Amino acid sequence: MEDLIKEGKYKYFEAGEGTPIIILHGLMGGLSNFGGVADYFPKHGYKVVIPELPIYTQNILKTNVKAFAKYVKDFITYKGYDRVILLGNSLGGHIALYHTKMYPEKMLGLIITGSSGLYESAMGDSYPRRGDYDYIQKKAEDVFYDPKIATKEIVDEVYAMANDRIKLIKTLTIAKSAIRHNMAKDLPKMHVPTCIIWGKNDKVTPPEVAEEFDQLLPNSSLYWIDKCGHAAMMEHPDEFNKLMHEWLQKTNL
After folding, report:
1. pLDDT digits (tens, 9 = 90+) for 88-98
2. Where does the AB hydrolase-1 domain start and stop, copy by copy (predicted)?
3. N or C: which end of the chain has fewer CB within 10 A?
4. Best CA proximity match to 48, nearest among 61, 58, 39
5. pTM for the whole structure
């Protein structure tokens, strides 16, 4: 994901031609978490676009789920796309859901994995304490079923964020915003076809969260990945792509 295109206020990765799949990363998620998706779908008739969300660069008043959803809509308009498929993990899933609520006319389909939006402590417990490297390493390992996926590089990145005062304040602001923007009342009115792919062993947003999303959304399909934590597309990229592709074909997207 080195080749980011920079245009105006936007920075993004883009590959392939066809129906646009726009991917929204989570709080800790570098764009590279979606390497598997970015490799696979351009070979199957989709354009994959991954914008860098301004999580740590927006004014604090715009550091919330609603403002990020508007940022996504502005990006879609800027790119000249009529309607898109949104895929989001963790906070990115919440932003995708909120975008779907606010701008359904822009949506062809929605894919969420390990998404916040229903489960109150989803973000609350996952932001790190400052300073304590061992604690942060444990938190990073908890994101995955296989703790080895939390490489030193990933732990270092989270550790650096936790020790950057401004980033920490913004992370807490986002966590509070995620709790404030609970989607439970909105979901039953959201008719966009939705694919829910969840790790059976997700400790951050447990499996019952996926079941609740599936119950509340009128047009959803739920798929499970075994031996899998909070970042399914990173921990089991091939299985994630297979499930997502099957759903796209089944839904004619």
Report:
1. 999 999 999 99
2. 20-115, 166-237
3. N
4. 39
5. 0.94
